[in-house]
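JOB MANIFEST
job_type = single_chain_structure
chain_count = 1
residues = 290
[input]
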Amino acid sequence: MWPARKFLLILMLLTLVGCSGTTFIYNRLDFILPWYLDDYVDLNRGQDAFLDEQLAPFLAWHRMEELPRYLEILDDIDATLDRDRDLTASDIEAISLEIERAWFRLEERGLDWLLALGGELSEEQVQEFLAALWKKQEKYEKKYLERSDAEYREDSYDSLVDNLQDYLGKLDKSQKQLLEEASGRLIRSDATWLSERGDWLRRLETLMQREPGWEQRLREALASRSDTVSEEYVQLYEHNLQVIYTALAQVFNSRTAKQDERLRGRLADLRKDFQTLIEQGREKGLAPAA
């Protein structure tokens, strides 16, 4: 996922949804998550009930512990925007790291119910799950690797523009020029990323043989995955991060009063939604699992 999307689509990353109507969608995650999982493996009635039991404490934890932390991230974003100086790439990076840590917490806690469910699957279902992942790999390879360099740059540019316009509104010519120049400085990483993803899927296939202790080994493999990627991928990723952080800072620094108003409004809406969800949780007597 592009660093720009990490910074701008905080809703998608931090509440597991990517559309408007935050509270409406969030309150239905117990229905949405099983539906999403159904794209990878068909569960029987007993497994559906088991999943419901596993999701309840996870969703309570997320609402009552994580959403207040997202409010703190919004506070930091507001404080960064209010500083009496131009934003820097380091400012954007600091916020991105906060969001990344939130994602890692979500991923780690989500493993509890994913691993529990994994222990309930039949061997046939495990193979169905792995086949779905490989099918997605093939889809990515066809979608990304067949692009020319020019198409890669165009896609990168379009993604940056679309994401920024979601929060700032229509960009002017000079702002688009900044993003076009940034897209030209990006180094293609799709082939390297897909190679790393394929290596991970092969490791996952071995782990999903579910020999005794497989759950802990999978946790450890996920926790250490950044230590196993190639140096080439790390260098590409770090280069592209800095290019995009710099471009984001430049565009935010050039935002008009109208764009600033739209940005503040979007952040305020997120804040209101998070606060509403937290209060609804209190009214329901929800408490995060220990």
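[summary]
The first helix runs from residue 3 to 8.
The CA atoms of residues 12 and 148 lie 29 Å apart.
exit_status = 0
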